[in-house]
Design goal:
Layout (H helix, E strand, L loop, with lengths): L15 H7 L9 E6 L6 H14 L4 E5 L4 H9 L4 E4 L4 H12 L7 H18 L8 H11 L4 H7 L4 H15 L4 H25 L1
Parallel strand pairs: 1-2, 2-3
Helix pairs in contact: 6-8, 7-8, 8-9
């Protein structure tokens, strides 16, 4: 590490306690790189160390170096106060650049975390709006209100629409589900909703 970043003094210690015994011998810290190896972030000893360091050193970034790039572990590290999370799989030169980023005030997490977060958001969105492929966003809002038995006037008020606009949405929804009256449309919507939820659950089980 020292060979890749000659403008920084790199100090290595076996534990935080060991470093604290000698800290007066060295200049102020720019960053703390805590190597947890194969340990889990949520292990009491590890989470306690991260929280303690983050609280004690404030503006000095605490960066985690770990064997794992698990999404959940990375999120917990940031929640506990870490300013960066570096998987041990990256090269030393990349590791040093990421440390420099944290020293400059940035927060680094692996790209895999962003992909996992995107997948989680997409999965949540699919579950929350199982009929999104059938109705527009606004129609989906009206559908949910209809399923709850709300009158057009109430739907218009809650969605900030004209009542005439709500009536148009209701007519279009009725056409899509081939319903002839309001009671039938609610019945068919509930049936569609249950079938869609079952399909999402089945897909998740297969994954």
């Amino acid at each position: 590490m020292a060979a890749h970043k000659t403008d920084l003094l790199i100090l290595a210690f076996g534990s935080i306690e060991e470093w604290k015994q000698k800290c007066d011998e060295y200049p102020p810290l720019s960053a703390i790189l805590l190597n947890i190896g194969g340990k889990k972030i949520d292990e009491p000893a590890v989470s306690g160390q991260i929280r303690s360091l983050a609280a004690e050193f404030g503006a000095i970034p605490v960066i985690i170096l770990a064997d794992s790039d698990d999404f959940g572990q990375i999120v917990k590290a940031i929640e506990y106060g870490a300013k960066g999370y570096i998987p041990a799989s990256v090269s030393i030169s990349v590791c040093m650049e990421l440390i420099a980023l944290s020293v400059a005030g940035g927060v680094f997490v692996p790209a895999s975390t962003l992909f996992a977060m995107r997948h989680l958001l997409e999965s949540s969105n699919t579950t929350a709006r199982p009929l999104a492929g059938i109705f527009t966003d606004r129609q989906a809002e009206v559908v949910e209100a209809l399923r709850r038995g709300k009158a057009n006037k109430i739907i218009a008020y809650e969605l900030n629409l004209r009542e005439s606009t709500v009536k148009v949405h209701v007519r279009n929804i009725m056409k899509k589900v081939k319903a002839t009256n309001r009671t039938e449309v609610v019945f068919k919507l509930n049936d569609l909703f249950q079938n869609s939820i079952s399909g999402v659950s089945a897909n998740k089980t297969l994954c």
